[in-house]
Specification:
Blueprint (H helix, E strand, L loop, with lengths): L2 E3 L1 H8 L3 H8 L3 H8 L8 H11 L3 H4 E3 L3
Antiparallel strand pairs: 1-2
Helix pairs in contact: 2-3
GO molecular function: DNA binding
Pfam families: HTH_26
InterPro entries: Cro/C1-type_HTH, Lambda_DNA-bd_dom_sf
Amino acid sequence: MAIIVNLDVMMAKRKISLNELAEKVGITNANLSILKTGKAKAIRFSTLEAICKELQCQPGDILEYREE
């Protein structure tokens, strides 16, 4: 897929665990894990907004487009 998810990089920079972020954002660990591994087919803007708020970052810090 041409969309790369760099959520794990931002989480490492902010020193926050998957469990902690999932709890603060209000989604399940499983759904956050699916997003983190790049297996998600979609993301709600409200979820993306909540993640960016918690990680104090921009959507472009998490999502990246690369041509295949």
